[in-house]
Structures are given as C-alpha cells and as structure tokens.
TrEMBL record:
PANTHER family: CALCIUM-BINDING EF-HAND FAMILY PROTEIN-RELATED, EF-HAND DOMAIN-CONTAINING PROTEIN. It comes from Sorghum bicolor. Residues 368-382 have a biased composition (Low complexity). Residues 368-388 are annotated as: Disordered. The keyword Calcium applies. Keywords: Calcium. The keyword Ribonucleoprotein does not apply. Transmembrane segments: none annotated. One of its GO terms (molecular function) is calcium ion binding. Residues 33-68 form the EF-hand domain. This is EF-hand domain-containing protein.
C-alpha cells in the first residue's frame, strides 16, 4: 500500500528524492570512505586537538544526530532531552568523560546504520509542490464533496467566540480550511511561515477585501475557496515549494515479529540488561525499563519515545498497566519479563487501534547544522529553497 502511495506521488507531485537509507549504509560499509568521513568530523569536533572528544565537544554531534532523526531542539521537551541524553550516553557509555576516535567511529557507525534501517522502513520522500495537483483538485469532482465536509468542520469551529451564534467570516473560514488540505491535494503546509507569506497571503490579497470580512454562507465559501485555491495554484507554479514527506502506520506488527523470534528477542533483552545501571546484588530500578524500551524501539518498529504523541500515550498506558514506573528494584528475570509484557501490551493496543502518522515539512535550505557533523552526507538532502 505504501509503495503504491509513493508511486502515486511520483506520478503527480515531482519527486526530487527518496531517502531510503541506502546511501547512508553504502557510506558506512565503505571502510575507506567512512574512515575519511570520521577523520574529518572528528577533527572538526576536537576543538583542543588532544585526540579525544570531551562531553562538551560531543554536544554538536549529539545535536546534529537529534536533528537528523527529527527531534526538536534540546530544551524544548523532556522527552526530546531524554533521547539526546541517550545519544550522548551511547558515546560515553555513561562513564567516560571523553572518547577516542575509534570509540567515536564505532558508535557513529551504529547510529548511522540505525538511521539507515529506519529510513529503509519509513523512507522520506522529497516532493516538489508546483500547483498542478492543487489545480487538478479544484477542477475535479472531488472538490465539492470535500469542500462541503471542510466547511461543515471549519464553519462551526471558527464561529465560536463571545457570541456563539456569530456567523464566521470568509477570511477565517478560508484560512482554517487550508489546514484540512495536505500534499495529496497539492497543498504544502500552510502553517509554514514561507508558505503563508509567499503563497497564502498574496492569494488572499487578490480576493475582495470587503467580502473577506463578511459573514460567509456555504455557497459563498464553495465559490471563494475554489477561487482562492486556483490563485494559490498559480502562485505555486511560479514559486514551487519543496516538502519532505513521511508517513507510517504503527500497527504492532513489528512487535509481533520480534516476540515471535525468541532468539532475536533474547539477544535484545540480554543487550539492554547489560547496559542498564545495576544496584546491589545485580538488581536495577524499574525506571530503566523506559530506557530499555527506547533501545529496542527500532527493532520493534516503534518510534523513539517523544516522537509521536499518540504512540507515547499507548506506551504510557502499557507502563501503567505493568506498574513499571515504580522505583522498585528488580532482578534480571523480572526486568526482562516486565519489558516483554510491556511490548505485548503495546502490540495489542496498536493491533486494535493502529496509529497512522504523516508529516510534511517545508525544506527551505540544505539541512545542515553548525558543526556540520552530518553534512554534506546522504542524511542531508541538498535541495533548493523555494524560489523568491
């Protein structure tokens, strides 16, 4: 199904690039090229030139890795900060205050291969939105029923205020309606500031200013929304927008595959148990179950905690059912048993109520960061910003 959707977008929107992780894997597996890559990055990060990277010198690398996997900036949320801390811990193993070049290369290799595996499972499609699909939607039989459904949603929502009986204004309805359109309609994210300033607002200015501030009926909305979208389609022809599109469905099938493979499951459980901090008599706190789940999330086809709110809610419920957030110390057998039960609970929830996630992000410039750890590399699509 997903491949059909990608092929459909290739036929309609211009697909500039599909990031499926193959280039990243090729880089890592080419030992000579990867060694040169690591030498260059290590030298840029090693500010004092002592041949080791301190925790402070590693911070730009951690920030770059977070950005590459789609995390918000550090400090923006506790969940994201937790993942950043885990990435840093991968380098330092929670004990060292600095790492050597071989250690840096080993961990970076593991992280990049993990990213490649994630992209293979959930590729990023770089689309060029040029107005053709939007114009096709406006002229198609789809327009009226979808516009009617959109008006029934936004026409009521935007009219709620101090006067609950107030009829919404046309301007409010048009802007709210854009939030209901996606790249499948040929519309880039209207919430993006560049799209708003260069596509949406100029299109609004071509409509009657007087009518925009008047109460709107369904008939007027149909007519003006069609005109509004047509103007934006012309704007997009003149100023195409580059959008990074991803979609995924979390249905528990990845967990089911993992739980059915006892050898792989036992290997993962052994690995996470070795890495969690131990208390006396080879026991650890239940609080480390969340860290352990994050470590095996990719193998279970789950997103990192904090990346998808709906999945986070399912995970939190599973932990609540297992009473896994208690600070009680448990031994190895109990720890592994609880982690397996949590996976099973998440699987059942997702199997009954799959969670579909789609993201569309406008790409304004090459995805690079201050330290340039991951740029220019296959992780950073070098695409042009929308033309002014």
């Amino acid at each position: 199904m997903e491949q059909q959707q990608v092929r459909g977008r290739r036929r309609r929107n211009g697909v500039l690039q599909v990031q499926d992780g193959s280039e990243i894997r090729s880089l890592v597996e080419n030992k000579e090229a990867f060694t040169r890559f690591v030498d260059d990055r290590f030298q840029k990060l090693d500010a004092d030139g002592d041949g080791r990277l301190s925790v402070r010198e590693l911070q730009p690398a951690v920030a770059d890795i977070g950005a590459a996997i789609g995390l918000p900036a550090r400090g923006s949320s506790p969940q994201a900060d937790h993942i950043y801390a885990e990435v840093l811990n991968e380098f330092t193993q929670g004990k060292q205050d600095s790492v050597s070049k071989p250690e840096f290369q080993r961990v970076l290799s593991d992280i990049l291969l993990g990213m490649a595996a994630g992209l293979k499972r959930d590729p990023i499609v770089i689309l060029r939105i040029n107005g053709e699909d939007l114009n096709e939607f406006v002229e198609s039989p789809r327009y009226e029923p979808e516009a009617m459904a959109i008006f029934s949603q936004v026409g009521v929502g935007v009219g709620v205020g101090s006067d609950n009986n107030a009829t919404p204004k046309l301007r409010q309805c048009l802007l709210a309606a854009l939030g209901q359109l996606t790249v499948d309609h040929g519309m880039p994210p209207a919430s993006d500031s560049w799209v708003m300033e260069n596509v949406v607002e100029p299109a609004l200015q071509e409509l009657s200013a007087n009518q925009l501030d008047q109460p709107v009926s369904q008939e007027v909305f149909f007519q003006e929304f069609r005109k509004f979208l047509g103007i934006m389609a012309l704007r997009l022809q003149q100023h195409p927008v580059i959008v990074a599109h991803t979609e995924n469905t979390f249905d528990g099938s990845g967990i089911r595959r993992l739980l059915s493979n006892k050898f792989e499951l036992d290997k993962l459980l052994d690995s996470v148990w070795r890495d969690v901090p131990k208390e006396h008599k080879d026991k650890t706190s239940k609080e480390y179950l969340r860290i352990a789940l994050d470590r095996i999330a990719d193998s279970a086809s789950l997103p990192p905690f904090g990346a998808v709110d709906q999945v986070d809610a399912v995970v939190n419920e599973a932990f609540k059912m297992a009473k896994a957030d208690e600070m009680k110390a448990v031994d190895e057998a109990e720890f592994k048993k609880l982690l397996t039960e949590i996976l099973g609970a998440i699987m059942l929830q997702l199997d009954g109520n799959p969670i579909g996630v789609s993201t569309n992000t406008v790409v304004h410039e090459p995805m690079s960061t201050s330290s340039a750890l991951l740029s220019p590399t296959p992780l950073s699509p070098m695409v042009s910003s929308p033309s002014e």
